[in-house]
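Re: the request from the purification team.
They wanted to know what the chain is likely to look like in 3D before they choose a buffer screen. I agreed to run a prediction and write the result into the notebook, where they can find it.
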Amino acid sequence: MLDQFTPEFSRPHRRLPNQRWQIYPQKTELAQQMAQTTSLSPLINQLLINRGIETPEQAQVFLNSGNLILPSPLEDFPDLGMSLELLHNAIAPWAGPLGTIAPSAAPEAIASQEKIAICGDYDADGMTSTALLLRSLRWLGAQVDYAIPSRMHEGYGINKRIVEEFHSEGVGLILTVDNGISAFEPIERARELGLKVIITDHHDIPQQLPPAHAILNPKLIRESSPYRGIAGVGVAYILAVSLAQKLGQANDDILTSMLELFTLGTIADLAPLTGVNRHWVKSGLQHLPKSKLPGVRALIQMSGVHLSGGQGDESIQNSKSRSVDREATQSQNSKSLKPEDIGFRLGPRINAIGRIADPQIVIELLTTDDMGIALEKAMQCEAINRQRQEMCEQIENEAREIVEIEYLPSLQEDRVLVIVQPDWHHGVIGIVASRLVERYGVPVFIGTYEDEGQIRGSARGIPEFHVFDALEYSQDLLGKFGGHKAAGGFSLPSENLEALRSRLSEFANQCLEPQHLKPLLKIDTSALLNQIHHQFYQQLNVLEPCGIDNPDPVFWTSNVRVIEQQIVGKGHIKLTITQTIDDSEYKIKAIAWRWREYFPLPPRLDIAYKLRENHFNGNTTIELELLGVRLPTQSHIFFAAHSAPLRTTFEYNQCHYTCGIYKNGSVPELRIGNPDGKILAVPLGHSIGLLGSSRQQAIQVDVSQPQYNQILQTALQALSMLSNQY
């Protein structure tokens, strides 16, 4: 029977994704124990364990997040009380407690209102925060306007020009959203001009706080607070809800609209979906499909989110020439949206405006009560998002060509990619940086020339590389810079470019090993194809909403067979795979986004994937979304195919190794030898191997872990090439 697989490894095939798989340690006994209290399958409980949930009590809190009991924000945010007083006095100086009119107040007292101005930001978090506060403050009767600094000409955050402009317009109270915590000089200028300032922000705390009247920032509150993980829109939401309650105006309509905008901004800003974010987002996702906000309805309509089923994405099989990308094939058939609907559909349309157009479009979209205006603005978002996609594709193609020619040969030594070109739009180069990280597995610093003497750039890291630390390490070569562990922005004089490239490479060589230089794929657990069905998919809903810090579960299945595959849309692979279990064949369809270069895939593979629903002609099926593939580690074909043992040598991390398939009882064994005489011996089909100079002295190792799995894959590829010669 086994020799039927022989031809599959004699066919040449293109290269496979260059990945390192990191599979969570499997706690089978604990998962079985938890299953008794959660009434969920052990597989689902393993997913909970991977997310740090290891007791029945923790599981109950996570699974019943709708019942989360929250402390009053007034307890956790020391300056919230002062912020509410300042806003109360600006909006309703004549009002008593809970918004009642004080007996001594005359109707003309409304004229004594203080003008409020919001200073927002041009990313999704900043724009949704601005819209949330504009809508709520106007609804509460405030005189309020806003300004957002120019991404192209001014950069991030409130500045002196905006402060002085507000002052000249008679503003008395400035409210920053998603910015301001590092703006010492602009806030100092506002104080000099006699303006009151409330800062709402969520970015890291600087050494010196600005002299604002009140500062609301979750980084300033206790670490155990459920509010620690909120984004800028979360701070704005807390402030707006608290103010509406203080004024006695917290009715369902205004609270629901604020919750919807909070949900949009939180997911689009990639805030962690844990704690209070998970609690509120879960509720917000249920409200969004039936939103009363014209802007939200128009955005859902224009972006093609399916709220009541429909054709789904089966059509990509029947229209090969049709331009289909990932976001255009996500569909949803329920009364609640999923984070992916925002992450892949609504969010990009909002973010595109901030990247290459005027944020005013989004602010008007989300604050208008006129459906006609909302549709007009949503159409603008749609057109600009298409333009953003085209820009990204063009810049990515140009960047890849430069990397392949100039930098790829030395990437293992440089351990970082620094690429700068003229005429790239700096509003989208951050997206391209992320794609280059996914492709090459190294930190990426990408930039463009603002003028002849200045470069402006964006950076994205990998788990073992701290972007902000790298920028600090190079600060004498830079102008402005900022960021955090995973991402950052920077500017520098163009004459410092080569020195920066050397400095970043020096830093990368201090913290990165060769095995780190592959894209990391984190995998939850293994699954058999007969375990994947509608009931199991419905059980996975207990993990929702999934996103940052609560990722979609990723499964892997070993040694599946590819029986059909074709290119669809913009270079995606649509395929059908099968697995034989107890003499029964299980078949399922899958999609691999933007994998044209790996087509055709080998007939036998280990696969890593997420699950997704496909709706077509009234039918709903479960499909796989491939995230990674590798040659099978549980295949007996090398041994079965050849009477003579297979032996070869290969190079890995600049060292020479030997490898071969040997008989060891009834199970073939892969053995890899290093120059020091140590042997890694792994029975084919097993995840535990022996490492040592002899079996008596060897230690057991888990070969699914990255440091062993990568060399295992390299050895198997070397042996598969050898088999082509027979």
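For the purification team: Confidence is low (pLDDT under 50) at residues 1-13, 96-110, 308-334, 635-642.
Please add any questions underneath this entry.
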